[in-house]
Amino acid sequence: MGHVLNVLISSVSKKVPLIHAVRKALAKLQDGGKIIGADADPNCIGKHFVDDFWQIHKLSDVKFSSFLSDCQRLGVHCIIPTRDGELEFYAEYKQALAEAGVAVMVSEISALSVCLDKYKFYELLKNKGFPVIQTSFSVEKIEGSEYVVKERFGSGSRNLALKISKDEAQKHASRLKNPIFQPFISGNEVSVDLYLDSSKKTKGVIARQRQLVVHGESQVTTTFRDPSLEHLCSEMAEMLHLSGHIMFQLIKEDGGYLALECNPRFGGASTLSLEVGLDSFYWYFLEVQGKDRADLPFIRSPKEKTLVRYPEDLILS
């Protein structure tokens, strides 16, 4: 592989801040590289911000051999998956892609399967002694008077019902594929971004407080310091054998924090953590190029920062 690094961002959709963050990281490399955006939608917004656009079929309909030959034809050196539904595909073929000279920023399939299964995540963390929110297949087993009902698999707020009664919880569950129940806790929700290198060791951690959430996405987010929370998330991530950029969601209650779930990918507001020193994409690109990262310390900004997400116009001529 040459020093130029061509990066494929999959399911590029309208993830313009992520594209900008990848471009910024590429610019730090000696020889740079180009960004190829892939999406099933030929009219997606992201296509206007990448160097090349690849209209791809849904991965569930794609044969791996043809996917690989397309990657080679386009000169792809590494892939950044951005959507939960495709993580398993990339994890399953991570080794085969690596053998063909294509790196993927994704955890191993065994680690991934725990994060994408909220019940398995709860069981494992509880058994290892970590503080995790109570999760059950039966509302009767949940302690509390108000409940949360969500899908067992995947992450995000799809089909989520919050702060509802036992009767409402059972009714809502009947409309879900694989419902799980949790107690409703009225604490502050926090997100914690981490980068773990290829040896599954934490390189950096940034905690952020979600101040305005719209449709499950942080619109206003502010960073903060809490060494015990940072240490807790680092321990959980290393126990789970995760790698690359990952994100925990936790809720703060009187006795401390409870882990809600882990999104094993770059999140919607994770760009804020990059600005505070969590240089995930740059570190990953150096790993892909086989360069030593040991002399590149995690230097956290002494100042806290706030991210405000807003629509912006792009004028093309």
Helix content bin? 25-40%
Beta content: 25-35%
Give the structural class: alpha/beta
Biggest sheet record: 6 strands, antiparallel
Low-confidence stretches: none
Q: From the alpha-carbon coordinates, what is the Rg to the nearest angstrom?
A: 20 Å
CATH-scheme architecture of the largest domain = 2-Layer Sandwich
Q: What is the topology, as strand order, of the major beta sheet? A: 13-12-9-10-11-14
Number of separate strands: 14
Tally of alpha and pi helices: 10
Task: Give the termini distance in whole angstroms.
Answer: 36 Å
List key phrases describing it.
five-stranded parallel β-sheet; 10 helices; alpha/beta; D-amino Acid Aminotransferase, Chain A, domain 1; about 325 residues; about 25% strand
Would you write up a description of this structure?
There is one protein chain. This protein is an alpha/beta fold. The protein has 3 domains: 7-105, Rossmann fold (3-Layer(aba) Sandwich), CATH 3.40.50; 137-183, no CATH class; 187-308, 2-Layer Sandwich (D-amino Acid Aminotransferase, Chain A, domain 1), CATH 3.30.470.20. The protein is 28% helix and 26% strand. A 6-stranded antiparallel β-sheet has the order 13-12-9-10-11-14. A 5-stranded parallel β-sheet has the order 3-2-1-4-5. The longest helix is centred in the C-terminal third of the chain and has 13 residues, at 227-239. It starts with 6 loop residues before the first strand and ends in a 9-residue tail after the last strand.
